[in-house]
Amino acid sequence: MAMMRLRREDPRVVGSFRLHRRLGAGGMGVVYLGSDRRGQRVALKVIRPDLAEDQEFRSRFAREVSAARRIRGGCTARLVAADLEAERPWFATQYVPGPSLHDKVAEEGPLTAAQIAAVGAALSEGLVAVHEAGVVHRDLKPSNILLSPKGPRIIDFGIAWATGASTLTHVGTAVGSPGFLAPEQVRGAAVTPATDVFALGATLAYAATADSPFGHGSSEVMLYRVVHEEPHLQGVPDALAPLVRACLAKDPEERPSTLQLSMRLKEIAAREAQGLPDGRPPAQRARVERPTGRLPEGSADHAELRTERRTGGSAPRPQGGAPGGPHSRPSSPRHPRSPGGPSSRPTAGRTGGRPAPRTTGAGRRPSRPDPKLMRQRLIVFIVVTLIVALGIAAAQKL
Q: Which residues does the record give as ATP binding sites (predicted)?
């Protein structure tokens, strides 16, 4: 994050914090790098003097502090201190080192598919915590995402609002960034978690192309495109394009949830990191190393997502009980598989022209026998055979 020297008009001390550098300035105020008596570094945000008397801006600032207090987890910078009654209200959060996603892409170019998927998975998981707190960010964009060594962090909840609230406007213009606003924000309709999903989709498109999916132009032109035109996703990797397009659906009901996004992006990140194509055989898909942070097996959310994936919306994955034998791909509604059709590979253990069922304890059919298990069974068989043979020989001697 770029730092600038303090200006003559900047305060040197705010509350119990000494200020060292400017980190940036926005519509509401200035953000400084500060430290407390123990040396803990903070990002301290102070409302501009000309806005400190504006009750609306004070209210927005108070909402930002309230949102920061309510959100749990490592997706945002932790709130350290605040004073909303000061002549110039301020609050301090834990300092997050690292560039913004906007600066990273602007200086070094688009990210790889694996990087985009990893960042997107962390952000969508972070948004789950934000939305569970009853907050909608409403201004998610590349400059509000910091890439820290511990993962991306979402900052600047200055226009965050409770789920279901309508969009605030100034002189008829929606508050936020035109290239990343959702259509419902432009129309002044209620905001929901799906509003942040749209912004996340536009943010991932920027990470892949170094450009907004709705191009450039005046605010009016950009807002019109968001509502009436389809996004331009040329340059977005094939592995991510369908998911990004789903996030940018005009209808909020058609967008995936943040939990679904987190799960799918983790899968894509793991696959891209290993260089596996989308069309790999089911046996290879089963061997993909799962990323950390996945929901535990058996949880309600995990079961819901497994049901959703079986009914569509993601790349095909092997599922238990799929017709056609243990080596076949799962059936698709658009391309039904004939139950009596041949398997994609030779299948051992056929009886009457149909594959002999073999299941695991969880009811899923493995794509191939476990070599280690087969060796163990062979050893047991040999030992039992020797014991029986020795017993027979001993009986004959008697």
A: 45
